[in-house]
Amino acid sequence: MHHDLIDGVPVIWTETPGPLEATLMFGCGIQDETFRTFGVTHLVEHLAMSTLPRLHFDHNASVSLSLTDFTCTGRPEQVVDFLARVCEALTGLPLERIEKEAGVLAAEGSGVADPVTAELLSIRYGTQGLGLASFSGPGADRIPLDAVRGTLARHFHAGNAVLALTGPPPEGLRLPLPPGPRATRAPHPAARTTRPSWHRADVPGPGLLLSCDLNDQAMLLATHVLCQRLTDTVRHQHGLSYDVGGTAVFVGPGRGERSIQLDVREGQEKRVAELLWQEAVRLATEEPTEAELAEEREAAREFFADPRTADMEVAERAADLLLGETHLDAETRLALQAEVTPARAREAFAAAMETALLLVPCGVEQLILGRPDGSGLPAGGCSDLAELPEGPRFRPPLLARARSGAARKVRLVVNGDGAWWQDEEGLVHGFPYTEVVGVEVHDDGRILHGLGNCFVPVASELFSGLGPAFAAIDAAVPETLRYPVSALRAGN
């Protein structure tokens, strides 16, 4: 692996077969946004790419949870031209195209994580940082212009960039980015939910989220063992699922999340969730066999023996440099894995299970599950309140209450401190105004979004006599957090 410095930007490269691949990375992504500015990094990326002419070689750009990448593959002179054009675009974004590119973003509609992992991150961290993964925000056309300019100035400069290449820097390569200090990313917001619990959400299948150190090879091997056991059990033995997937999410140096997701045959969601939890508990209480660990070590050796992994290696090293994470090369990883014993693998997984979040699709009924220590796994929610706070109460319209017994149970409280509502099942949702991250304003309503992955619908179609509630909300919530419903939303 080689290191250079071009125009203040670190360049990491290695020689691999095939055409030259380049990835210009910036240390910013969804986790650096707020609910109110959600999508701003993607908008900056689109504005920059919109300045490029038609190019007859592979090129793309993307925004993930932690990084923004501009990539291309081609002849050396093509790579030089692409990188220069991207850097020049980032020094003078065509802000007059914001409205058009906002429409393109709405049409693209892509996410930054699979839906199960995204929802689990939102449960763990709330409506902030990595927890924004499952949200769509106010809409690309509601992103303030100041947020676009601020994101550009704060993140898209030479001090927050790294270039990864699969060959030596070509002649004439320039990276004319604005200068900037080496970025020091603020620590990620602390998790709002760390105790084991299970949750329901609108997801296609069950999933499990575990906090850990992503560089811990004992935890990595244990997770791979669990995935293989689930494949053997849920897919091959019971025929309930096709795919068992795993995702690693960087949180901060030495901190991360590992998720496991399963698709599921319709009507078997509860059974698959139970099998997932059962196998996880078994791995936390019983050591894996040496044969299971040996199988995963061999899989890792075969993976790194593939010459195509060299491309991945240089990109990972560049990303770790931006993120401030310790980079482990293939040789080091394999050496560390060779030292992992069955006892160490179990211990690492058992420690992670102390943070376990189990997610199931909405239709799953009550789960009765036990933790590794024998205690019950509690159900989680967005609020710990057992009943509504004191304050002005609003009920559904009289006709709705006459037609539906469920509607007669629904209540809304909006007082000087915040807003809360009780749903048809008697569960209380809500938060104080200090935790409001955004308010979508309608002519006949307000939808309040809170920091704890929760919302409160203050809408005339649901509740009667809301004039005082609207006045209280508008007086308490800063104008910067209020926005009209997106014109790009379906039906508008």
Question: How would you characterize the overall build of this protein?
Answer:
With 492 residues, the protein is of the alpha+beta class. It has 13 helices and 19 strands. The chain has helices at residues 40-49, 76-91, 98-108, 115-125, 145-155, 217-237, 269-285, 290-305, 309-323, 330-338, 342-353, 398-403, 467-476; strands at 2-6, 9-13, 20-26, 58-63, 68-74, 161-165, 197-201, 207-212, 244-252, 255-262, 357-361, 393-394, 411-414, 418-422, 428-432, 436-442, 445-450, 454-459, 482-484. A 6-stranded mixed beta sheet has the order 1-2-6-3-5-4, with helices on both faces. Strand 14 (418-422) and strand 15 form a beta hairpin. It is flat. The relative contact order is 0.13. The mean pLDDT is 93.
Rg over CA atoms, rounded to whole Å, is 25 Å
Tell me the number of helical segments per DSSP (H or I, 4 or more residues long). 13
Give the N-to-C terminal Cα separation. 52 Å
Structural class estimated from helices and strands: alpha+beta
The amount of helix comes to 25-40%
User: In what range is the share of β-strand residues?
Assistant: 15-25%
* Contiguous runs where pLDDT drops below 50 for at least 5 residues: none
Number of strands: 19
Q: How do the strands line up in the largest sheet?
A: 1-2-6-3-5-4
Features:
492 residues, alpha+beta, 6-stranded mixed beta sheet, 5-stranded mixed beta sheet, 13 helices, 19 strands
